Structure formats: C-alpha cells, structure tokens
Recover the amino acids of this structure.
C-alpha cells in the first residue's frame, strides 16, 4: 500500500486556509459613532437638549459633577487570534449644556487625550488552607455513608 503525500489528499489547502484565517484580525467598533453632519447641525447657544437627543440619540454617558455634559464615546479595536485587544482609535464627542439646557460648547477628544490606566494584578489572601488538586479529588472519599443519604 503506497502512501499518498499530504498535499495530494486535498486536506493541505483547507488546513492552510484555516490557519491563515485564524490570524486575520477581528476589527470592531463599540459605542456611539456620531454622524458628522448631524453634529454640524448642533449650534452652541441655539440648540437645546431635545434637538441634540433627536440628532445624535442618547449619550454614552453623562457627567456627574459640575456643568452638565453629555459624552458620545466610540472605540475602534482590533484583536488578532488570542492576543490582547488593541485600541486603534477612540473618539469622545462632548456637549456641555448651560443651566437652561441650551448647548454651551462642543468638543472632541481622541485616544491621545486620554490617560492609560495600569491595572494592578495582586491576589487577595483568603482564609482557609491551600490544598492540592489530588487532595481535592480524594478528600471526599469516605465522608459519606448510606445513613446520611436517605
């Protein structure tokens, strides 16, 4: 019986195509991507909250302190295979209102305007004892008897 080379079996091409597809980056856009034409229709000093809501929709977030500000946040990310997600672009459109609810100012922030937050990877100690996998696996042997099961 002769062996057929792998590339002649017809499996080589689908396997190579699958490997190449696995390396294709996954691109996603999250958030509220504001239409530039609708944004241009909002005039500081003239437009109110109702007009902004009609043109842009609900904001991604609202300010909690100080001057009332609505923020429309959109983030463009890319992830290749099992690697960490990378932020390619981030846009924040903010609209500040005066005390009467009329647009006071409009601004834009980019990815460069934000601060990168470094996460702290610490473990919190818990009460109890550390037991191995085998201790967990065999720890319950003999703990149960027929009298307790009925």
């Amino acid at each position: 019986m002769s062996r057929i080379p792998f590339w002649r079996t017809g499996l080589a091409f689908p396997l190579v195509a699958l490997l190449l597809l696995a390396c294709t980056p996954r691109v996603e856009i999250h958030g509220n991507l504001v239409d530039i034409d609708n944004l241009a229709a909002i005039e500081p000093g003239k437009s109110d909250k109702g007009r902004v809501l009609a043109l842009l929709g609900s904001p991604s977030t609202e300010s909690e302190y100080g001057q009332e500000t609505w923020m429309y946040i959109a983030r463009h990310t890319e992830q290749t295979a099992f690697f960490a997600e990378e932020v390619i672009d981030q846009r924040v459109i903010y609209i500040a209102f005066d005390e009467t609810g009329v647009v006071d100012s409009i601004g834009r922030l980019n990815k460069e305007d934000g601060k990168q937050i470094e996460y702290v990877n610490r473990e919190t100690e818990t009460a109890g004892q550390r037991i191995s996998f085998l201790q967990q696996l065999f720890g319950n042997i003999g703990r149960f008897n027929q009298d307790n099961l009925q």
Remarks:
- The chain has five helices and five strands.
- The two ends are 62 Å apart (CA to CA).
